[in-house]
């Protein structure tokens, strides 16, 4: 099997003759895209197989958010070269953000036959068929990615992929009890370091009816947790008749569906965050008390250079409001260290913000310039790699120290968790036995909870009592 970079894999076979292998890099949005592309291919007669070395078609879903992600794709293509040498009929399709960013350049790569951007993913099966039939290379990307789609036909096309029923997801070991639904595409924020607006285009929200219908279907199939997905999910806005539907409306409507037990949403932008979302969370026990809301920096100077559209004070006020409305809310964040010009004082301001907000967890990224973004064109990457690394380590330490203290509040508490399945890496401090292996569950606050129990609990909600806590994990006994 060709799994060279630690990303997740899908594989599928094409009738009795052709086999598909799909590899996906990047964020949750990409994982969803990959699952939907697999669904579209399955509808065309493809079916699952596990071996890339046997594949007639390899589909690679790419990420452009960090340089490293693109390097991994090129390295993967390099390895495919050997497969293609031994099987010249092998067809390679590169899809997603990198396809949109590099277009022809990627198509010129010796192993690549098809290139399709994020807005053209519904065309992938047809492009593959065409390339197989005419042995030519095929490119499908958006010419002017920032041009808002106005015609109904174009808008319908952009939603087409989302209507597919997911037949295979990235977390294949998990019983299908949870699903993602895209509620919007694209981003209008233009943070100066970010490539997303240039590869995924402007914000387009899906009609609420389509989202609700999809959620009903999923619930009827046994899905118990639904996560609403958008690059800036709180910007969801859809005008229908006299009403403009918001994320708060969607949360209410989806949580009212019979069978839906938990509803989540990711990722939020602090700039346009409406308190109505928090009120729905406070009033509706099905809306999980969890908020992923990246701050990126605690320094106003850096936030301005990043074009984030808020100050540190405004962000902290919003988090204080969140805790007033939803007292037990778990907050997760993202930060970038080493943004051009970040001084020790700027970095200290970020550490101060983290200590103030007290995150459940936060992802730290070392700044790397992305070609075509404002910061790449206008700002020099001034911070040495070793300083970025030190700042990265420091923030991780601070976050871990806070989480270690705050997670103790769960000791002795009984929590409901959705069981995801057996732990892939069993914790050594836990007993193991064949009938009750270590299981992983998620709490409503999005904590990973480890406990022993029968594997048959996978996909179900159970109550557990927390007996021990660590910065990233809670340990429990079945209640
Ligand atoms: S909000 Fe900023 S960081 Fe997030 S996707 Fe949009 S431009 Fe990128």
Walk me through what this model shows.
With 479 residues, this protein is α/β, with parallel strands linked by helices. The protein folds into four domains: 8-140, Rossmann fold; 175-288, Transcription Regulator spoIIAA; 322-408, 2-Layer Sandwich (Transcription Regulator spoIIAA); 411-478, OB fold (Dihydrolipoamide Acetyltransferase, E2P). Helix content is 34%, strand content 24%. It is built from 15 helices and 22 strands. The chain has helices at 28-43, 67-86, 97-102, 104-107, 124-134, 152-160, 196-200, 208-220, 247-255, 275-283, 300-305, 312-325, 344-357, 374-378, 385-406, and strands spanning 8-14, 18-24, 46-47, 57-62, 91-96, 114-116, 138-140, 178-182, 184-185, 204-205, 225-229, 237-240, 243-246, 262-266, 290-292, 330-337, 361-366, 414-422, 438-443, 448-452, 461-469, 473-478. The strands form six sheets. Strands 3-1-2-4-5-6-7 form a seven-stranded mixed sheet, sandwiched between helices. Strand 21 and strand 22 (473-478) form a beta hairpin. Helix 9 runs parallel beside helix 10 (275-283). The longest helix has 22 residues, at 385-406. The chain is globular and about 65 Å long. The relative contact order is 0.08. Residues 1-15 and 171-175 have low confidence and may be disordered. Residues 187, 189-191, 194, 196-197, 231-232, 269 line the site of iron/sulfur cluster (SF4).
